[in-house]
Amino acid sequence: MPAKSARTPAQTGTRTAATATAGARARAGRASRPGGVRAGKDGEQPAAVGSAAADPAGKAGKAGKKGGGKSGKDKAGKKLKSGGKGTPERVPRKIYEAELFRLQAELVKMQEWVRHEGARVVTIFEGRDAAGKGSTIKRVTEFLNPRVARIAALPTPSDRQKSQWYFQRYIEHLPAAGEIVLFDRSWYNRAGVERVMGFCSREQYRRFLQQCPIFERLLVDDGIILVKYWFSVSDEEQERRFQSRLEDPMRRWKLSPMDLESITRWEDYSRAKDEMFVQTDTPDAPWYVIESVDKRRARINMIAHLLSIVPYYEVQRPPLSLPPRPPSRGYERTPRDMQTYVPDHAAMLLDGQPEAH
Fold first, then answer.
1. Nearest alpha carbon to residue 274 among 261, 287, 283, 284
2. Which residues pair with 79 in a beta bridge?
3. What's the rounded Cα separation, in Å, for the pair 302 and 90?
4. 129: closest CA among 223, 45, 197?
5. DSSP secondary structure, 47-97, as one string
6. What ranges in 223-344 are assigned the alpha helix state H?
C-alpha cells in the first residue's frame, strides 16, 4: 500500500469539505473495480472480484489452478501448499507480526483522520462460522481508541425489536461524526442464519433483499463510508476449528448448537450466500471476499484493503510535552490502613505459595 503523506489544512481544504467528499471518493474507488464479486462455493477462489477482493494487500498472491494437486507460486514467489484448491502457504509469524504492526500504526492514523474530519465509517464482518471474523476485529481495534472505534455485536432481537422495521435496531448503532463502527455480523443475519434456520418468513426474506440495497445506498449517499467483508473458509477448515474449540475450555464458549448445526447445513448456507451476493453486491456497497483458511493472511489482507478504501491522511497533531511538576503545598496522603487493598496475589506466586481458589 502506498504511503500517505501528511497534508496541511490548506492542501486538503476545510474540514467540512473534506468530510462531505470522503464518501464520494470512497464510492469512486469502488466504482473503478473490474466487476462485482461472483458467487461461488466457500473454500474455493471466487471468480473475478477485482484486485481489492482477490489480493487487497498485493502480498497474498493468487491461488493455484483448481485441481491437479500441483504447487504454484504467489506474487512474492512463495510456494503454495500442494492441494486441489491451491491453498496458500501460511504467512510466517515473523513476517506476519511485522506487517500487522505496520498496518495497525496506519489504522491509528486513519482513526485520527476520522476524528479530525468528522468522517463516519461502517465496516461489516460477515462470513461462515469460525471463519476468523472475531480475531480480525480484535487486531483492527487493538490500538484504537474505544471512544472512536467501537464494535457492534447485537444479541438475539427482543420481542419488541421483532415488531420493528427490520433495520431499525441496527440504525441506532450507526456512527456519528468522528466514529468508526465495526459490525460483528449485521443486518445480513436475515439473508443467512434467519433464512437457513427458518427464523424469518419467505416474505420477510424477500422484503429484506429488496430493501437492503436501498438502505445501504441511503447510508452511502449520506456520506457514510460503508465497507462489507465476507470471510470465506472451506468446510474442512471450519470443522477443524470447531473441533479445536470443543477441546479448548478457554474457547468452548464460542460454540453454540447453532454453530454445530451449520456443519449439516453447509450447502444451504452456500446457496443463501450466493443469493445474497446476487442481490446485495452493488456499486454503492460491494462485497469484498477474504479467503481466511490462513487467518494471518486474512487479517493483514483485510486491514490493508480497508486502509486503501478510506481516503485518510496523516493528521499533524500539535507537539505535546510534560509540564513541570509543581512543588508540594502540604498535602499528606491518607494512611494506607484506612483504605481497602486487594490481596497481593503476585506476592504469593513469587513466594512459591500454592495457588488459592
1. 287
2. 73
3. 16
4. 197
5. S--HHHHH-TTS-S-PPPPSSTT---B-TT-PBPPPSTT-PPPPPPHHHHH
6. 235-247, 257-264, 266-280, 295-309
CA angle 26, 28, 32 (to 5 degrees): 120
C-alpha cell of residue 181: 463502527
- Here the cell at position 177 is 461524526
Is 75 within 8 Å of 55 (Cβ atoms)? yes
Cα 31–Cα 33–Cα 39 angle in degrees, nearest 5: 110
Q: In this structure, what C-alpha cell is assigned to residue 76?
A: 512474492
- Span 280-327, pLDDT tens digits: 999 999 999 999 999 999 999 999 999 999 999 999 999 999 999 999
Q: Which phi and psi (to 5°) does residue 306 adopt?
A: -60, -40
Q: Pick the more confident residue, 333 or 21.
A: 333
pTM comes to: 0.76
Q: Which residue has the cell 492514523?
A: 109
Say yes or no to pLDDT of 2 above 80. Answer: no
pLDDT tens-place string over residues 94-149:
999 999 999 999 999 999 999 999 999 999 999 998 999 999 999 999 999 999 99
Q: What pLDDT does 352 receive?
A: 82
Averaged pLDDT score across all residues of the chain: 82
pLDDT digits (tens, 9 = 90+) for 27-66: 554 444 433 444 444 444 333 333 333 343 343 333 333 3
38 contact partners, CB below 8 Å, separation of at least 6: 46, 47, 48, 49, 277
* 144's grid cell: 484504537
Residue-range domains of the chain with CATH: 12-309 (3.40.50.300)
- CB 38, CB 44: distance < 8 Å: no
Grid cell listed for 141: 481495534
How many angstroms separate the CA atoms of 186 and 157, rounded?
Answer: 12
Task: Check: CB of residue 104 under 8 Å from CB of residue 139.
Answer: yes
